[in-house]
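We modelled the chain as a single entity of 253 amino acids. Its sequence is:
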Amino acid sequence: MGQIGAHVRDEDPVAAGREVGAEIVQFFLANPQGWKKPQPRPDAAEVVASGLGVYAHAPYLVNVASTNNKIRIPSRNMIAQHAAAAAALGGRGLIVHGGHVGAGDDVAVGVANWRKTLERATYPVRVLVENTAGGENACARDLDRLALLWDAVGEFDVGFCLDTCHAWAAGLDLETVVDDVRAITGRIDLVHANSSRDPAGSSRDRHASFATGTIPPELIAHVVREAGCDALVETPAERQAEDIAFLRAALAG
């Protein structure tokens, strides 16, 4: 099994991780709603020396699938910049949402844009494509779209991040999703172990703690167990320690 941790506040990830009993942490390296380049961190040496495994999450604006040059090209630059910043912290991976094309655009064009992104650059940490919750024009929402995407990018050094809330919202079967995804990608590198505030198939990306969400906690633990890789909770901060403890107990049983 992999290690268990949480998405934590980026201003002090080491302290935040220790507060919730995390072995690994994920955080943003710049404003998640902006385009600014990550700056060198004054706590970089502390993060590296902490012994915590580190993952970075790309800003939400990043969308290399876009048919809009004003979004796609800056998105490619952002992946390169954030990958470099993650590598400076000893990062294990950079999580990037699968992205989408605009209304009326062909998803195949978005998939081709993903391929061009990976053809044109190599990164010092592995890019992990994350499945998304909703959108008819999304590139990594359902299994058919994921298969189309992986046919285009699978030959590159790219990984996969499976988010349980997103999979639930997309209507995927969490009992079989690990096998279903692996049959397409051959790998799952990280699990975002989240419950959902909404019912299955809602297309809504609203995370919840295990105790308050609509996904049976044992089903989330099942996904983590089957995946056998690192797992991070992106649940509300006040319940993260509880969610991590639940996962540890479930996986030890």
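As a brief sanity check on the tokenised model: The chain has a mean pLDDT of 97. Residues 93 and 126 are 5 Å apart (CA to CA).
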